[in-house]
Design goal:
It is built from four helices and 14 strands. By secondary structure, it is an alpha+beta fold. Strand 3 and strand 4 form a beta hairpin. The chain is elongated, with a radius of gyration of 25 Å. The N and C termini lie far apart (74 Å). The model has no long low-confidence stretch (mean pLDDT 89).
């Protein structure tokens, strides 16, 4: 999917930047590749659409600065209560230079263990990769069908990696695993107590 964000150069900076937000824009800055930082602004709704469609870790093309510019989102500042976007840092990239970025996981398949009450543990929500900007995967797939028992673990090595993408995490690092739910653990504990009581009674009768 291609992500495009219409932006404008921003002349208001510093403590007066609240005027930008009052006018319905989000202040932002573009930096990187040895060039001066460029203050910009854009409509919040345009960024919300990109984020909702999965653009947080993807290449975004900025339009409105004379010529299209390829960037990645480096940081988003949000209001602590309203969660509105207060400021965004964009990192300028070169299409022929490899970069490091985090790619989110997408869970697919079904686990019989989860269906019967096991709880899924997320050891990682994203995987750090290195590749050319044009090769950044939208997501990496984790197949839940590999988790059939509480002893099963999905590691980094189990994730299908597209060609041209290098994973920087350790191959044996756990990504997903299972644990027993508190409810099931409590039920089993109660069952064990009952068995112990029955054993004590049996021993007394003997």
């Amino acid at each position: 999917m291609d992500y495009v964000l219409n932006v404008e150069e921003r002349t208001v900076t510093g403590r007066h930047v609240k005027q930008v937000r009052q006018a319905g824009y989000v202040p932002a800055v573009v930096y990187g590749q040895g060039e001066d930082a460029t203050p910009i602004q854009f409509r919040e709704i345009d960024m919300v659409r990109i984020l909702r469609s999965g653009g947080l870790s993807q290449l975004i093309e900025l339009q409105g600065l004379g010529k299209p510019m390829n960037v990645l989102i480096k940081e988003i500042q949000r209001h602590p209560l309203r969660r509105t976007i207060l400021h965004v840092d964009f990192y300028r990239v070169q299409m022929d230079v490899k970069i490091q970025t985090d790619v989110p996981l997408r869970l697919e398949g079904e686990s019989e263990a989860i269906k019967t009450g096991a709880v899924l543990i997320h050891h990682m929500d994203a995987i750090t990769v290195e590749c050319l900007p044009g090769n950044i995967p939208e997501y990496l797939v984790a197949d839940l069908s590999k988790l059939q028992t509480l002893n099963d673990v999905i590691t980094v090595a189990d994730l299908p990696i597209p060609e041209g993408v290098d994973v920087l995490a350790e191959p044996q690092a756990p990504v997903l695993s299972l644990t027993i739910s508190r409810k099931l653990a409590a039920e089993e504990a109660e069952g064990t107590e009952g068995e112990e009581g029955e054993l004590e009674v049996a021993e007394e009768e003997a």
